[in-house]
Amino acid sequence: MPAARFVLIAALGSTPSFADDATVRVADVAQLRRAVAAAKPGTRILIAPGMYRGGLSFNRLRGAKGKPIVFSAADPKKPPVFDGGGSVLHFSDPAWIELHNLVLQKGRGNGLNVDDGGSFDTPAHHIVLKGLVVKDIGGRGNHDAIKLSGVDDFRIENCTVERWGRSGSGIDMVGCHRGIVSKSTFRSADSIGGNGVQTKGGSSDVAIRGCRFHNAGGRAVNIGGSTGLRYFRPKVQGYEAKDITVEGCIFTGSMAAVAFVGVDGATVKKNVIYRPTRWIARILQENRDERLVPSRKGVFEGNTIVFRSNEVRATVNVGDRTSPASFTFKNNTWYCIDRPAQTRRLVRLPVAETGGTYGRDPKIRNPAKGDFRKRKNGSG
After folding, report:
1. Global pTM value
2. Which residues pair with 127 in a beta bridge?
3. What is the mean pLDDT of each run of 10 residues along the chain (380 residues)?
4. What is the distance between the alpha carbons of residues 90 and 344, in angstroms, rounded to a whole number?
5. Nearest to 129 by CA among 205, 66, 71
6. Domain count of the fold of the chain
7. Of 157, 209, 306, 337, which residue is most buried, by most CB within 10 angstroms?
8. Distance from CA of residue 66 to its chain's centroid?
9. Is 30 contained in some domain?
10. Is 259 domain-assigned?
11. Strands 364-366 and 371-374, bridge-based pairing
């Protein structure tokens, strides 16, 4: 393997010219802009520790298969902090780009915005977000920590998302396809009306795996949603969301752990849901356009649900114009902390469950300290 080519951008001067696969070091916004202007497939931009003014926007930044353009902390233990702006960072119509170990904070609108530039037939694609911290975004409005619009083939992993807009989402996906969100943490407040992760506007084939949601809004995961018809990508195809998987996650608090909203098939399995504040799940139809199927074909399987009878209003909240009979509930473990003997009576589902377990303590080790492993043989 050839030795890496390192380039240090001078504080002043014209836009540099990079060799292929160059590694570039930058230490201020001006240097970063020049590095981006000169970037080629394979360019790796290492950003020095420090504070950087937010509100940066980059258009049509293109890496290539096997040669992404990478933005990374020069020192992952001292990540650079991008602060403020309408959106802290905005990438319009990118392809094959990666962001590693950056902090984005205090954007007035969104934290990170990645979109297709308004060309619905040519989505942004092959985007990797790894080790990001996005926090303290927006205010009382629909402000998202991470906003993805028209993005295909993406991966978000090991990110921490904290405190986004009161009506927004930790991650909001509109018309996104073939993506995964994994091993990430979402924290906000149950009192907000927003979501931890939302997949809507024709999104499909998205998996949310191994994540933690702590008081992550009114709906920790909103599978589907309510999207203006002109924003569906690439076009209205009968659903807000299709083939969405939520697996192996831990939910604490939130008014509802998951909501199925205008979906045409989604699976929620092998999660731990601990003390939601109003419902375990919801089945809703908020977009009433006749071209959209009623919310249907959800699968809720193999989950462990621990709740209190004085906190949960109903196990599953079912709205009108939905198809609850098409849902499947099977092999879930249900435990009511304050009334364990009454668990089976308290769990009311829209269809009969197969293989469910009721009232048996799942023996979670220490939920107050975030340890949701099961105790062995009743010991700590």
Report:
1. 0.94
2. 97, 154
3. 52 62 95 97 98 98 98 98 98 98 97 96 97 95 96 98 95 98 91 89 98 96 97 96 98 97 98 97 97 98 98 97 98 98 98 98 94 75
4. 49
5. 71
6. 1
7. 306
8. 25
9. no
10. yes
11. antiparallel
* Domain with 279 in it: 168-374
Going by the DSSP 8-state scheme, the letter that residue 375 receives in this structure is P
Specify the residue for token string 């927004």: 168
Q: How many CB atoms lie within 10 A of CB 371?
A: 11
At 39, the amino acid letter reads A
Q: Is residue 195 part of a domain?
A: yes
Backbone angles phi, psi at 336, to 5 degrees: -95, 115
**Which two three-digit tokens encode residue 300?**
């809720």
Cα separation of 166 and 66, whole Å?
Answer: 39
Neighbours of 330 (CB within 10 A): 15
Q: Would 360 be classed as within a structural domain?
A: yes
Q: First CA to last CA across the chain, in angstroms?
A: 50
| Phi, then psi, of 157 in degrees rounded to 5 | -145, 145
User: Hunting for tokens 């009108």 — which residue is that?
Assistant: 320
- DSSP states along 302-368: S-EEEE-TTT-SEEEEE-TT--GGG-EEES-EEEESS-GGGHHHH---SS--BS-EES----EEEGG
